[in-house]
Every structure is written in C-alpha cells, then in structure tokens.
Amino acid sequence: MTDVTVELADLGGWAAQTGRASADCGAAQAYATGNIADADFGAILELITGDYAGLLTKVHDILGEDGSGLGLEQGALTSCAEAYRDADAQGRDRFVELGGTGVLHSSDDGVANGFDDVGSAQGKLTAPSASGATLPEVSFGWILDKVCDLIVWVGGPDPREYVTKWIAGDVRKASMQAAAWDCVAACVEAVEANLRSGAAAIAATWTGAAASASAGQMGKWGTALADQAAKMRVMSDHLTDMVDQAVKMAQCVVDIIKTVISVVSAGLSNASIPLYGQWKLIESVKEAITMVNNARKVITVFWNFLTLVIDSIKLCAATFTAESLPPAPAGAPVPAGAGR
C-alpha cells in the first residue's frame, strides 16, 4: 500500500498556478492571431507564402490547445484537492483510492508557499517593432520601359517580368512578425518556467500515486512548451534572416538594373550614327542582357535560400500539433466508500 501525503493549501496553490498558465497561453494565442496573422509579404517572399500561412494556422491552434489543456490540468488538480478534502472530512487516515490504495495524511495550513510565478508570461507580449529595413527604390520611369523593350527586341528576357517584379514587397511587416515571434516564444518560455517552479514546490508536500502521475503529466507539458518556444525562436530568426537577405538581394539587383540602364542609354545616344550607332546599340543591349541574366542568378540564389527556410518551416509545423501535447488528465480520484 502507498500512503498519500497532501497539503491542501499547496495543492490549491498549484492548481491556481496551472490556471494562470492556461490564461497566459490564451493571451499568447490572442497576441499571435493579432500580430502573426498575415503570410503575404509581397513578391520578394512569395515563395514561402503557402507553407508559412499553414504554419501560422498551426501556431494559433496549438496555443489555444495549450490554454485548454492546462485548463483541464487545473480542473483535475482542483478535483483532487476536493476529493482529498472530502476524504479528510470522513475521517483522518482512512483508506482511500487516490490513484492507488493507502493511508491519507492531509494537512491544511491555509498558505500556499512557492506557487507565485517566477516571471510574468503575459508581460512578454509587448508591441512588436520593425527593424527599419526597407527595400531599395525600383521605379525608374519611362527609361526602364524603353530599355526593357530594346532587350526584348534583341531576344533577351524582359527585366520587368523576370527581375524587377521580384524585388517588391513588405519587409517591414516581416520584421515586425520576427519581433512578435520572439515575444510569443518568451511568453511560452515563461509559462514553462512558472510550471517548472510550481512542480518543484508541490513535490515537497504532495506524494502518492496521483502525485506521481501529475508530476509525469506536467513534465510532459514542460517538454512540449519548451519545444514550442524553441521553434518559435527559430521562426523569428528565419524571418530576420529573410528580411536581411531580401534587402541585400534587392539592392544588388537594383544596382545591376541601374548599370543596365546606363549601358543601354549610352548605346541609345549613339544610335543616330549610321551603321556604327546601330551596331553599338545592339552591342550595348547584348551586354545588358548578360547583366540581366546575372541579376536573375542573384534572385535564384535567394530563392535557394528561401527553399531551405521552407524546409525548416515544415519541420517547425510538425511541432505545433495537438498530438505533441500530453493527453487530457484522468478524472479526479474518488475516496473509497464515497456516496455510501
């Protein structure tokens, strides 16, 4: 037989702390749905849109599942405390079925020590701010259209279709989401730390089969929350890197297009010269085609980088599933002889 020891005020304090964790996860979900809600960053990050949008849905859902699941844990702990209290009222040291069979030794000093949160989880959910990164100007007016028409006339790729269209987008929104991912991660980390602190405190005054089962259950929650927070940090880092690489790529491409315009414009200035001028214009356009293809290579390298990010997004998405969470807690133990 296994005896059961419980300090009822402490168990109540542990249940209340678990309830606060549930509320914190609910706040994190509300924050995420408001600040990490849009996967459309424009053409420059278009490659990730579909997978990233799917990830956002999973994150919003898992934070809701976190809140609901921890709410169920609070309910189970509260039911345990009530069952112990009822058993104690029927007679001290009565044999009870509390996740096992043994003697109940309960006490209640009216004070729940050690169940204050070690940090404010919701305090981590601050308003996100953009990094200040911006894309370079890509509008060159009529001269770009003229240059593009000449390049197409000679048989080259239209820069408007294959180059400049891909360097437009909202990197400010992406950088704000990177900051928001960090805030949600910090909130989830704080929830995990608070639960870990409470679990250590309750272990000092609650023993028995039910206590061991609860400890195992909350240990699984700690692992799940820590994994979620780690993946959220990964996504923050990815968005930050994508913004940085997008700005660098766009600047490189814009510089190439400026050179293309300069080269073709020089050819146009000599176009009125018979034979030589026409030859010189065609040569300048051919040179411009080579530069345009170099710009396309720069964009392709950036797309290869985004492809690697997509692979990571898919791995992160696998973490944000209901299957990764502990199962719902079992019902509260019922004292032997209750209701007789």
Structure description:
Helix 2 (49-90) packs parallel to helix 7, helix 5 (171-202) packs antiparallel against helix 6 and helix 6 packs antiparallel against helix 7. Helix content is 65%, strand content 4%. It has helices spanning 8-35, 49-90, 142-154, 159-162, 171-202, 209-269, 276-317, and strands at 4-7, 95-97, 101-107. A hairpin with a 3-residue loop joins strand 2 (95-97) and strand 3. The protein is rod-shaped, with a radius of gyration of 31 Å. The two termini are 23 Å apart. The protein has one domain. It has 340 residues and is mainly α. Mean pLDDT is 86; it is low at 92-100 and 332-340. A three-stranded mixed beta sheet has the order 1-3-2. The longest helix is centred in the last third of the chain and has 61 residues, at 209-269. The protein contains seven helices and three strands.
